[in-house]
Amino acid sequence: MFALLYFCLREQIEADSRKVENQFSFMAMAETCEKCGREVRGDFEVYSRDSAQGYEIVVDSTPDRNFNICDSCNIQVCFSCCRFPESGYCDDCIEKYQLEGYLRDVGLIRNGP
Ligand SMILES: [Zn+2]
Ligand SMILES: [Zn+2]
């Protein structure tokens, strides 16, 4: 099942950039939260478009998505297992690299503690 999904994704984006292909190889791997083991909903979508800056690849998520893939360690975690789901990082990485202050500065964390 995973292999099939991976193959489809590969085929779909083969004409696009290698970078996106590398990202999607892990996005398609598991459909459960790696912390609590619950199933996650939603998906990422990738498409290309012509913009004023030229051809670009857009990675978007479906509205029902309830998980993140950590920008740092690539772990797949559901929002309930993240203190700051909007940041795109898992709790472990935020703690490990002490990202909280930085993420607040750049506006990726908006809620107070
Ligand atoms: Zn979870
Ligand atoms: Zn992480």
Sequence-ordered SSE layout with sheet pairings:
Elements: H1 2-13, H2 18-27, E1 44-51, E2 54-61, E3 67-69, E4 76-78, H3 91-96, H4 100-105
Antiparallel strand pairs: 1-2, 3-4
Helix pairs in contact: 1-2
One zinc ion (ZN) binds next to helix 3.
Give an overview of the whole structure.
By secondary structure, the protein is an alpha+beta fold. The chain has one domain (2-105). Helices cover 30% and strands 19% of the residues. The strands form two sheets. A two-stranded antiparallel sheet has the order 1-2. Strand 3 and strand 4 (76-78) form a beta hairpin. Helix 1 packs antiparallel against helix 2 (18-27). It starts with a helix and ends in an 8-residue tail after the last helix. One zinc ion is lined by residues 33, 35-36, 38, 77-78, 80-81.
Short description:
By secondary structure, the protein is α+β, with helices and mostly antiparallel strands. Helix content is 30%, strand content 19%. It is built from 4 helices and 4 strands, in the order H-H-E-E-E-E-H-H.
Largest sheet: 2 strands, antiparallel
Helix content: 25-40%
What ligand species are in this complex? Answer: zinc ion
Tally of helical runs: 4
Shape: globular
- SS-based structural class? alpha+beta
Poorly predicted sequence stretches spanning 5 or more consecutive residues: 1-5
- Let me know the average pLDDT: 80
Total individual domains: 1
Determine the strand fraction and express it as a percent band.
15-25%
**What is the straight-line distance between the termini?**
40 Å
- The order of strands across the largest sheet is 1-2
Radius of gyration: 15 Å
Tell how many strands the DSSP assignment holds. Answer: 4
Element-level helix/strand string: HHEEEEHH
